[in-house]
């Protein structure tokens, strides 16, 4: 009887109580309040390779211990960001993905601190390996320092 299924592997009919529980769970899920997205909207992201290349070629570089920031002025009325984490600098994909999440969150939560800047910029943030070991306070302090450097460069020009 090699070709036959055992009773344990055979599909079972769904009982009435399982259907009621499923309906209850679906109704509860649908009635839950909508979650407000805190993601960066698409219009605030650099996505195309050409956009990144333009920032690298025409922008200014600001280096830190945890990240390198490349900035180029834009006339769009808001800051945009692109994030990179290379396998050479960071390592395996799970570490690169974590580094990119940390930088996105850093930029999103620091948006209020970009207010003193007179211009709007396209930002490309390159993660460095030290970013993964740094605590949250150190990451924010580093990003604030870069913002201050940008503001200082604006005043000089």
Question: Would you mind describing this structure in some detail?
Answer:
With 157 residues, the chain is α+β, with helices and mostly antiparallel strands. It has a single domain (43-156), classed as 2-Layer Sandwich (Ribosomal Protein S5, domain 2). Helix content is 43%, strand content 16%. The chain contains 5 helices and 4 strands. The chain has helices at 16-31, 49-58, 93-109, 130-133, 136-156, and strands spanning 60-63, 67-74, 80-84, 120-127. It has a 4-stranded mixed beta sheet with strand order 1-2-4-3, with helices on both faces. Helix 3 (93-109) links the parallel strand 3 (80-84) and strand 4 (120-127).
Which key phrases capture this entry?
single chain; 157 residues; alpha+beta; Ribosomal Protein S5, domain 2; four-stranded mixed sheet; 5 helices; 4 strands
Residues in helix, %: 40-55%
Principal-axes shape call:
globular
What is the β-strand count? 4
Radius of gyration, in Å, reads 24 Å
Which residues form runs of ≥5 with pLDDT under 50? none
Topology as H/E string? HHEEEHEHH
Structural class: alpha+beta
Give the termini distance in whole angstroms: 84 Å
The largest pleated sheet is described as:
4 strands, mixed
Q: Can you tell me the CATH class?
A: Alpha Beta
CATH-derived topology:
Ribosomal Protein S5, domain 2
With helices defined by DSSP (H or I, 4 residues minimum), what is the helix count? Answer: 5
Strands side by side in the biggest sheet: 1-2-4-3
CATH architecture: 2-Layer Sandwich
Residue-averaged pLDDT: 86
Q: Which percent band covers the strand fraction?
A: 15-25%
Question: How many domains would you count in the coordinates?
Answer: 1
